[in-house]
Predict the structure.
Amino acid sequence: MKQIVGATLTDTSAPETNFEATRPSDWFATRYRENNLRGGHIIQLGPGNELAARAALAAWPGAMQIGGGITIDNAAAWLEAGASHVILTSWIFEDGKIRTDRLEALRSEVGKDRIVLDLSCRKRAGDYVIATNRWQTLTDEVVTHALLNRLAGYSSEFLIHAVDVEGLAAGIDPDLVALLGGWDGIPITYAGGIATLDDIALIEELGRGRVDFTVGSALDLFGGTGLRYEELAARESRRGSLPR
């Protein structure tokens, strides 16, 4: 398992990493299971990751999401392997446009409730442009409330990385969080730049309590120093015991 700096993973060069695990993937999944932290993301960034992905899913069946190379041809198989949801990105695009027919076919195949759409984006000229192909290819689609409304019928959740700050642990993209917090629809999980508890508090404020988060590089579990895993696990346990 690796923590990668956003948009440095390409076909021609090694990505910038700030952490490489010495423990196997199922060790991490077991930790999440012990703390009942559901909804974690297993992302296969390139070939050679299938065995590790399957080991993590087997360690906690039905509780973690799988992404990376997911298409209609393998989505059902990954759900059968123990994924709670499949995360779709590049496959739903063609020539920079979203293929609604593919979304309709996938929804018929596995059901809306098992689909997460990854709309990770980069800021260009004030717009948040969706990036695919390991965040190397900018599409013609922009994250707007209208787009979220259009896609909500095909997904149970949106996963949105702020690619420009992803992996840097140097602060979130507040404008993107505010944009997402202004939309009241299906759940949204934000990722990118989270470094401290202050960043998490800012997500809650700007996101109006509607935006969840996922954290990586800053977490001590992944070699970071800004956030402690046990503290976040306890925080989520307290939140889970309160009415939402």
In short: The mean pLDDT is 91. DSSP finds eight helices and 14 strands in the chain.
